[in-house]
Amino acid sequence: MLPLGDDNSDRVIFPWVNIGLIALCVLVFVVFQGMGTDQQFTMAWSAVPAEILSGQDLVTADQTLQDPASGQVFVIPGLQPTPISVYLTLLASLFMHGGIAHLFGNMLYLWIFGDNIENRLGHGRYLLFYLVVGVIASLSFIFSTSVFGGDPTIPSLGASGAISGVQGAYLLLYPHRRVRMLMFRSVVDVPAVAAVGLWFVFQLISGYASMQGGGDGVAYAAHIGGFIAGLVLVRLFTMGRRPAATPQRYFGPHDRLSGGRRVS
After folding, report:
1. Residues 6+ apart with CB under 8 A from 27
2. Distance (Å, rounded) from C-alpha 48 to C-alpha 157?
């Protein structure tokens, strides 16, 4: 399942913050992470459970591993010195990614779902909401690592925890909004409760499998924690703010008067 677009017919403000978040993630990956090649930067600025739990910056040696099948030798860089407080990596890591596919997938979801939440919350509240649920997502990963005996020196990075929070908010605010999905080589429109709900179910199943030793390097606990945080907190962020008025639309000859919806 891959989202392609959703109904934006009620959007009345331009999503400056959402676009800025996407641009910042791309900038960090291209310039500071060197398109994913600068492992020293990545290992210095990622959020590390052991560092957050102890408050101490950790530096570890590189590890050399050999693929038993091909004989190829890999060097996995160790943790690097963090030039800021380790607690600030909870924010810095939200704008870093492990590869192009990781970046593309996250930015696609943020592009589709984020503008609707910004339209509902407004620019300032949306930015604060995004950062809060992102930090909670990172803390969820750290908590699960500690409770379930994971390796506390494995760092986490990526915007997916914060974006999961955006999806949680989207599910609560727009459960019946149509989302265009690519499913089994077909493009279909489904309600958000199905599109986002199925995504969350997959996170739960994958997270359980990860705890049973079937880990694939994805921080599912961050996804789950961020999603629940977004679901719970979005009402708090909408307090005192009225929904933006839907702009008047003029239907052309190709618009269906019964629905009048178009997807981006």
Report:
1. none
2. 9
pLDDT given at position 191? 94
Q: Which domain holds residue 187?
A: 12-238
The three-class DSSP label of residue 63 is strand
Structure tokens at 33: 């992470």
Which residues are CB-neighbours of 117 under 8 A, at least 6 positions away? 126, 129, 166, 169, 170, 173, 234
Could you give the number of structural domains in the chain?
A: 1
Rounded-to-integer distance, Cα 98 and Cα 111, Å? 19
**pTM of the predicted protein model:** 0.87
**Residues of the chain where predicted confidence (pLDDT) is lower than 50:** 248-264
Nearest to 4 by CA among 228, 159, 185: 185
Structural domain includes residue 263: no
Euclidean distance between CA atoms 160 and 97, whole angstroms: 9
The CA-atom distances, in angstroms, between 150 and each of 103, 147, 227, 230 are 25, 8, 21, 25
Could you report the per-residue pLDDT of 164-181, keeping only the tens digit for each?
999 999 999 999 999 999
95/87 Cα distance (integer angstroms): 15
Helix axes 100-121, 16-27, angle to 10 degrees: 160
Q: How many CB atoms lie within 10 A of CB 255?
A: 13
